[in-house]
Amino acid sequence: MKPARRVTIAGGSITPFIGKFHPDFIWKKHPDFGRKENPTLEQLLHRVALGACADVDIEPALIDRGYVGNFVGELFSNQGHLGAMTAAASDGFLHTPFTRVEGACASGGLGIAAGVDAIQAGADLVLVVGAEVQTTHNAKVGADFLARASHYEKERGIDEFTFPAMFARRTMAYCQRHGVTPDQLAPIVVKAYANANRNPNAHMRAVTMTESQAAGSSDSNPCFLANQELNPWLRLSDCSQVSDGACAVILCSDDGLEKLGQGADRAVQISACSVACGPLGAVADYTQMDVTAAAASRCYSATGWDATDIQIAEVHDCFSITEALICEALGFCQEGEGMKIAADGVTSLEGSLPINSGGGLMAFGHPVGATGVKQIFEIYRQMNGLCGDYQVATAPERGLCANMGGDDRTSVVTLLERK
Ligand code: CAA
Asked: Which partner from 33, 147, 172, 260 sits 20 to 30 angstroms from 184, CA to CA?
């Protein structure tokens, strides 16, 4: 959809994304273990909701509507009703309408889409928050929780690690169709970690990854799936992180922009935002991301843009194969070339189309409900020259975000422009 009423992003706030291997993540071998706790879901929600209002210097009471993207707060934190929980961040939010939105890993993107709709319906200032805490249980229990984004009854049994296995299945199909091998995914992984090493908010900011580490399986980088058919097709390094974190942005109408204390000069326009869904548990072709392609195609036709207009992108790399497939779905390259554009450096920070400049889901981290909001905030920050060590050389003017839920079953594509 192309907004009839102009929507701009005026500012926002993000927490560091943390989890295993992040120096500030509290676990049993951390020096502060027993003395400090990791932030709770409530603390994360409040931190970014207030941080975003402060970033544009407005009182919380000025917010007309709030949306909260979160996937499974009930399972990891025993907490639902996250709209009201976010509203508790400030007395100024008293009686403000907050709504939680859920679409698996696309929950944050759906929050953005809902915010755009609210502005079409007359709201002037909308707060969109995304947050997830995932480290309260071990990786195997967490994999069961995340499997709720699949068709649980039909697909949970594919492997104890359901989502890693579903994308190993895509890697297998892709490699067989295009005559490539999984080690050719290594440049995508190496780029993600190299970018994250320059990003102070990234979960894997302190972990390095070389091409030979990413390309081969080893004791430290095993093929870990129990499903023997899928096992050879996915290594540990191909996976996104199990992270905690939150991000929020302020969306404004033109009238809303006038109410800001600051930030109007940094505004980035949302030129189009489209949501598409496919039937749960029924992927027609594992070598295509047709739902994301449908959302992108609607955005391109609404704006008259095509893939060649995009100067920077944040795409959903929940696994290394996902980045290759999604680049093809968005028209950034031909089918079968998704690995090649990373290997050729096209998608690096210095390339002609930087992708996942802060490290993506694999290395910036993937606190599920936060991801879609973070993508939007990242493009906004790149367009305003706010990315520090991972700032691209020329601040881009046109960008794209693609946030995907499940096995490409819900997809949100957003086009952004700095004028
Ligand atoms: N050697 C052997 N096995 C290992 C290993 C190693 N060095 N490291 C990990 N493993 C395997 C083992 O099976 C291990 O189980 P045991 O400890 O019982 O042996 C298991 O992984 C878990 O190990 P850890 O707790 O040490 O794993 P970790 O915390 O490092 O997690 C990971 C690694 C399992 C890959 C985890 O990062 C992960 O699950 N990542 C993917 C997260 C995910 O699926 N997110 C959703 C993406 S899908 C999406 O975005 C769409 C949507 O809507 C859901």
From this structure: 147
Superfamily classification of domain 271-417? Thiolase/Chalcone synthase (3.40.47.10)
CA torsion sign, 357 to 126 to 96 to 81? Answer: negative
Closest atom, ligand 1, to C-alpha of 319: 47
379 CA from centroid of ligand 1 (Å): 29
* DSSP code at position 135: T
Atom 22, ligand 1: residue with shortest CA distance:
139
**Domain range summary for the chain, segments of one domain joined by +:** 271-417
- pLDDT tens-digit readout, 277-305: 999 999 999 999 999 999 999 999 999 99
Q: How far is the CA of 122 from the centre of ligand 1 (A)?
A: 44
> What does the block give as tokens for 124?
């002037």
366 included as an active-site residue? yes
Asked about 105 being catalytic, the answer comes back as: yes
Average pLDDT of the residues in 101-118? 98
Summarize pLDDT for 238-255 with one digit per residue, the tens. Answer: 999 999 999 999 999 999
Strand order, beta sheet including 312-315: 98-101, 65-69, 125-132, 245-252, 8-14, 268-277, 410-417, 398-405, 312-315
Q: Quick check: 92 and 59 in contact, CB under 8 A?
A: yes
- CB under 8 Å to 35, separation ≥6 — which residues? none
For residue 163, the ligand 1 atom closest to its alpha carbon is: 44
H helix count then E strand count, the chain: 14, 9
Nearest atom, ligand 1, residue 404 CA: 51
Regarding pTM above 0.85, the answer is: yes
Cα of 146 from ligand 1 centre, angstroms: 12
Give me the pLDDT at residue 93, please.
98
Which residue out of 105, 239, 273, 318 is catalytically annotated?
A: 105
Q: Which two tokens stand for residue 319?
A: 């696994």
- Compute the distance from residue 241 Cα to the ligand 1 centre, in Å: 8
Residue 226: Cβ-neighbour burial (10 angstroms; 0-12, 13-18, 19+): exposed
Question: Which stretches of 209-361 are assigned E, i.e. beta strand?
Answer: 245-252, 268-277, 312-315
- Position 328 scores a pLDDT of 98
Which residues have CB under 6 Å of ligand 1? 20, 104-105, 138-140, 143, 146, 149, 161, 163-164, 220, 222, 224, 236, 239-242, 318, 366, 405-406
